[in-house]
Fold this sequence. Notes:
- The chain is mainly α.
- 79% of the residues lie in helices and 3% in strands.
- The chain has 7 helices and 2 strands, in the order H-H-H-E-E-H-H-H-H.
- A hairpin with a 3-residue loop joins strand 1 and strand 2 (118-121).
- Helix 3 (67-105) runs antiparallel to helix 7.
- The protein starts with a helix and ends with a helix.
Amino acid sequence: MNIEMLNLLDRFYALLWPMLRISAFLAFASIFSIRAVSLRIRISIAMVLTIFLSMQLDIPKIDPVTAEGVKEIFNQLFIGLAMAMVMQLATAASVLAGQAVSGSMGLSMATMVDPTMGSVPVMSQFFNILGTLVFLSIGGHLIVFGLLLESFTLFPIGKVLMTQDLLGKMTAWGAMMFVAALLISLPVVITLLFVNIGMGFITRAAPSLNIFSVGFPAILLAGFVVMWLAVPSMVNRMSWWWVQTFGQMRGMLLGG
């Protein structure tokens, strides 16, 4: 009986530590934490990955009710949250790009309630959906799961991730979020800037024209036309941004 209990505890410890990291990642990662991915799906994915890992890795036996075990619980949760935060910042770049485009087109007041991002302009929702489709089209979900499984080799259980180098990388990645948002929205914003300048010249030359009745529909129509023409360029930039995200996730584990 005691031997069976010991074997049961060993199996429990082998499943506990990978489950904590994987569950924290799936609970807070931007693509997998949306309502479309239900809680049952996330639990099923976490269980499958955990069982697979438990059969492939030699997981150390750490009692979770001891001080070392409590420390390791927080450590595994922090690793999963850190990897999920990288993806959250990547998605936030698309939302920022949509806000810049909405401001240029005059659609800042047209907002939608996003369960993950809160109240965002409609163009931000469009950019978010487009970024998600790009993520899935390049096989990002498979790459992310591969990085998550590889993290147990690059950063095994028992090693602390919280370092000064990691904090510096996360700060630099937050700055890169604004750079990516600028690159994604740049074609539309620059074109609409010239349209606004042209409308200013027209209004100056013909003061009798009402800028609100003429300028706003013209800018809105020009914005949709430019968006339609700039979609291939924005898709390429989003693909580049997701590749940088995958590299940041792996570099964070290698440099930790």
